[in-house]
Amino acid sequence: MPDLGPPSVDIDACTGCGVCVTACASMVLALSPAAHGAKKGRVRLERPDWCNACGHCEAVCAFDAIRAPLPVPAGTPVPPKGSSVDPASLGMLLRERRSVRAYRSAPVPRELIERVVDVARHTPTGTNSQNVHWLVLGEREQVRELQQRCVRFYERLFKLVDNPVGRLGVRMMAGPQQRAQLEEYLPVVQEANRRMAQGDDRLLYDAPAVVLVHAEAWDSCSAFNCDTALFSASLMAHSLGLGCCFNGFVQQAVENSRPLKRWLGIPRDHRCFMAMGVGWPATRYRKLCERQPAPLRWLD
Questions:
Q1: Which end of the chain has fewer CB atoms at under 10 Å, N or C?
Q2: Which residue segment(s) compose the domain that 253 sits in?
Q3: CA-closest candidate to residue 17, choices 63, 58, 79
Q4: Are 4 and 129 in contact (CB under 8 A)?
């Protein structure tokens, strides 16, 4: 993220309560000692170069005494004192959002996807890097080209697994679990290829749009940043009546095929962390699904 500079403090409006100092994870702010005759000190910039423009200082100040480096647009709503969503509604949202694998042919308007991304960009990122890059394929021809390139990648990959020399190479390069997974998926991919040859898209399910997220490979938070942002996007898309399906097969093909990565224009020092099909659902889920209990353990 570009350097936006430190926050600005209105000394006259500051009451010295110190709430912003506590909220600042980067330790940019500090309280000056109280001046003669004053009950409290005032906030000062202790380490201005450490500011990552998270905006928490401004958001937590009750006296409008501090301004974050990135201005909040006029008309931005103020959050309620509590949560804007009750637990039951949030629980239902998380459970009713399903992976959609059947779409209507109608295209998704660009404005709608931009609205989804505009909300998802507020998802937390490590050190507030805001380094999630969004790539949208919104034309049928683009999505079809992506599908064909991914299919060619997997055809080459599984040809290796399907012959003795290739299996030896896989044994040398992959661990036993990865090798077992590839061999387990081989008949699935073969059946999917057979169906796709008959016009049944078993990779992208005829989604009219695909969204990919990528970020710097060297950043240890990039995977978290991209995946959580894309999940947020899926929730926003669901609220707008759209359906989504996360696609690890596309992500793996993009990440492991240099020609595919170049075609998409993803920088060499970036990794593609996930892909997601987006479109108008052709089917409706009428019931909730159950999941196994979470493997939760409390440390003794």
A1: C
A2: 91-140+203-279
A3: 63
A4: no
